[in-house]
């Protein structure tokens, strides 16, 4: 007799998931959440590209880092919560879709933030996402008695900080940066306070998979940015951009290789989890910024930008260096040894020097290829005989 299929309920108590749950994979809702966030990432990278090409460098960097924080932090909070409490009932799905609506509102406000310094729309979208997260944490407080104090601290902390973000809109413009930094610090302190004592039951392997998937999505957005810049040149009858496109593609391929070169060590203790999770702000922001810098380099090659080749080189070289140093701190230093540990900071330093010479994008591509080559050769040497397959005879 055929067993009836399980029916997803409209509401079920929000019980914690097991930290050692086998085969804990990303759900379709999580993947949909990530894809919707790409809109906001693309808006931020595109605005950075145009500001850099116009020579508004200080404004570009400041606006980008602030906008990207709102994008990244909202994604981080949902990701860690879903790892611990994804019930996949209808109420959970609807609440998450409200968070996605907040991400789309945030994305709509990105151009205004860059052009006029008006962060009101971004703030409204951010608050929508975060208050939906309060609903999630309130459900967790009801359904999980063991972690109820932590869930309550999350719900209260997030609510208080969101009130702060709304009040910030009433402050004079000259207080904008200071109030932003203060509220960022408050946002970052909420998990550090809420998780003590006793961590919520997020799944370490699931977290590393989720971060890896978002890394892939941001890399894909960078590939799209390069493709669009090259397409614009080809549509204008400029057919000498293929070598620059190849160099840009090599840079992106190398970033992918270096991030996923070895299995990522899953965070399992609170201090390291905070460092690892927060450190990825630099990873994601750097990857998206590399796409913007490569777009600016294409504009320089087409004589459309108001910056020099050196400046465009730094628009790529600086985020490449940030990416390498962050990966070095989060992954390489903990898992590898010898020449590879030294090679990452050395190549990061050379990436900062590359724009001082000719053809900086090509030099950066060559440096990253060299670093990938070093990691491959040394990994092969380390594996050595242990990788041999035993002779069945």
Automatic annotation (TrEMBL):
Transmembrane segments: 60-82, 94-115, 121-142, 154-171, 177-194, 214-234, 240-260, 281-300, 312-330, 337-355, 361-378
Family matches, as Pfam families: LtrA
Cleaved signal peptide residues: none
Keyword Zinc-finger tagged: no
Protein name: Low temperature requirement protein LtrA
Keyword match Membrane: yes
Keyword entries, A-Z: Membrane, Transmembrane, Transmembrane helix
Organism: Micromonospora taraxaci
UniProt-listed InterPro entries: Low_temperature_requirement_A
